[in-house]
């Protein structure tokens, strides 16, 4: 499926005949909403991650919302996350009536800085939502230790990290809950969709109830729930995608390795992978430093590459606390005090790394970046 607008798009879902056939089977079965196929998807996904249970939902945002509801996070509580993430991570905390508190990021992995996390804790802190950003696991050892010492829940935002590993184990099973997204740009997709993973039966049961109007048996509702269900149509796509997710991630890793080897411009910092992690490169994010000799600003580089037909993107152009919504809620740079996140958001740029890139595409990306300033 060729995107006509861009020579090389920033993302391209890998959808083939198997996904189309799987959807056609569901459509011709007449059972379109949540049913057998969702159950099958949950079962193979939990097995893939290596957790006790999984609950499929309509989006990654809904997954985070239900995870925090299942943990009974509410008004008066504080939940720590980073401002260098997609807004959904923090909004899910607001949905509970709780207060998002922002900890800064580590400047190499762009994930939560455990030292700053400790500094941002108060007596009201109940949970941490760590984000495995761009497919790079956050420092699970340090964050888990902090959570255990201070009796905090850990929610893993795995929206960008299907199959990413920390010390040989897949993310999504380390904390109390893990939440995945299947948005089309992600490492695997269901169109829209999400998955909650946990080793805690009570959490899985509660998320099941919340997802489906608190229904314990037909038309018997015990708690206030929602319609946050995934359809069998989406799950059918997910079952096929899950079979290929490792292969697709391997291609992302190979593409990242190619770019690492061939990109070379003073002042251009390539992505850093920490020891002991499997990085699945949801994004290949470089940072630009004009002080260190890069000839263009970040925005000039983006415009230059776009001119050449290479779509790039900024993840994320402003940290969450600088979003108008959060500004209205009273968040200020001074109070939030996350200088690394703020600075990185001005320097960062994602280049295409998706599995649909050919060797020719990669060569063209590397040549184009290397020829800046010529
Ligand atoms: C880090 C992060 N968290 C949460 C989400 C929300 O997922 P969804 O778009 O499926 O609601 C996303 C998706 O973009 C994300 O990147």
Element layout with pairings:
Elements: H1 17-29, H2 36-49, E1 53-57, H3 60-70, E2 78-81, H4 87-95, E3 99-102, H5 114-120, E4 125-131, H6 140-149, E5 153-157, E6 165-166, E7 169-170, E8 177-181, E9 194-198, H7 201-211, E10 215-217, E11 220-221, H8 232-262, E12 268-269, E13 277-278, E14 284-288, H9 298-307, H10 324-328, H11 333-336, H12 339-347, E15 348-351, H13 359-370
Parallel strand pairs: 2-3, 2-4, 4-5, 5-8
Antiparallel strand pairs: 1-9, 6-7, 6-13, 8-9, 10-11, 12-14, 14-15
This protein binds pyridoxal-5'-phosphate.
What is the number of helical segments per DSSP (H or I, 4+ residues)? Answer: 13
Strand order of the largest sheet: 1-9-8-5-4-2-3
Average residue pLDDT: 97
Q: What is the beta-strand fraction?
A: 15-25%
Secondary structure class reads alpha/beta
- Mind summarizing the main beta sheet? 7 strands, mixed
Low-confidence stretches: none
Q: Please give the number of β-strands.
A: 15
List the bound ligands.
Answer: pyridoxal-5'-phosphate
Q: From N to C, what is the helix and strand string?
A: HHEHEHEHEHEEEEEHEEHEEEHHHHEH
* Overall outline: globular
From the N-terminal CA to the C-terminal CA, the straight-line distance is 34 Å
Q: What is the helical fraction, as a range of percent?
A: 25-40%
Rg (CA only)? 21 Å
